[in-house]
């Protein structure tokens, strides 16, 4: 325990020495969230990276998130402490596959979930996150929209957006593991509990939800609900802050399989090592960066609301 406290102090001191900002996604290990300057969802962290006056960004998350920071803030050094922390969903569509889909739909705008590589964003018209996807899709002037890569988020958006939508058949292996039967069982075992889930869950799971939102939306929902027990349909890392901010409420994960191995790769030792040696820097080639930035900038102009 003492070693962990000393490591946290060392990381904080390295952050000062290197003029670095430490960002942690809501799914990161508890000790990473405890040490970070800012914890948040993909959208909040991209914005924080772009707005920060610090020279270095240490992104504790997965590769596409660090790439987004490098796209938005090319003058900064962006470190991903574990370069092998990828997102399997982001890797489910390649630039050449997207180019083929675009050929089949001339003039139809492509909405790319931020869980995509920089090269795929560069071929897309606008990005979205789970917090703003419906608003992003509805902000487009066209009648048709093609959405990538998540079939589950796309299906969820299609229930609300006033567009004719088609999508790529990707998915998040972690959220896909949650089954409707597990949710039904958790509800039966916890009468009076509410169920909140991420739109990356399967549509059959989403149908059972009292509220569907991004990871940051879950913190707001947990504070606001009168229910004493909340069943949570997303990655286990979310529980750290939910419990800390709502000590009087009970939070239940309906499945033990809700662990993203990539999100759990980063340990505090990796953060210290990468800062000490200023290594594991993520860069994006300038031609790709400039085009991907257009898609991210268009998304950042879409107003955010406080419920998603
Ligand atoms: P948000 O934090 O944007 O809700 O995204 C969830 C996710 O799966 C990130 O990998
Ligand atoms: Fe990718 Fe799913 Fe892990 Fe998020 S939780 S990083 S979408 S695999």
Work out the number of β strands: 12
Order of helices and strands: HEHEHEHEHEHEHEHEHHEHEHEHEHH
- In the CATH hierarchy, the architecture of the largest domain is 3-Layer(aba) Sandwich
- Principal-axis shape equals globular
Strand arrangement across the biggest beta sheet: 2-1-3-4
Can I get a quick summary?
With 308 residues, this protein is an alpha/beta fold. It has helices spanning 2-17, 30-35, 42-51, 63-72, 95-104, 118-121, 133-138, 151-158, 173-176, 180-189, 203-206, 215-224, 239-245, 268-277, 286-301; strands at 20-25, 38-40, 56-60, 77-79, 110-113, 126-128, 144-148, 164-167, 194-197, 211-212, 229-233, 250-252. The chain has a 4-stranded parallel sheet, with helices on both faces. A 4-stranded parallel sheet has the order 6-5-7-8. A 4-stranded parallel sheet has the order 10-9-11-12, with helices on both faces.
Molecular structure report:
This protein is α/β, with parallel strands linked by helices. The protein has 3 domains: 4-84 and 263-284, 3-Layer(aba) Sandwich (Rossmann fold); 90-171 and 291-300, Rossmann fold (3-Layer(aba) Sandwich); 178-252, NadA-like (Rossmann fold, 3-Layer(aba) Sandwich), CATH 3.40.50. The protein is 43% helix and 15% strand. The protein has helices at 2-17, 30-35, 42-51, 63-72, 95-104, 118-121, 133-138, 151-158, 173-176, 180-189, 203-206, 215-224, 239-245, 268-277, 286-301, and strands at residues 20-25, 38-40, 56-60, 77-79, 110-113, 126-128, 144-148, 164-167, 194-197, 211-212, 229-233, 250-252. The protein has a 4-stranded parallel beta sheet, with helices on both faces. Helix 6 links the parallel strand 5 and strand 6 (126-128). Helix 3 (42-51) packs parallel to helix 4 (63-72) and helix 4 (63-72) crosses helix 15. The longest helix is centred in the N-terminal third of the chain and has 16 residues, at 2-17. The two termini are 37 Å apart. The structure holds 1,3-dihydroxyacetonephosphate and iron/sulfur cluster. Iron/sulfur cluster binds at residues 62, 87-89, 115, 172-175, 200, 235, 260, 262-263.
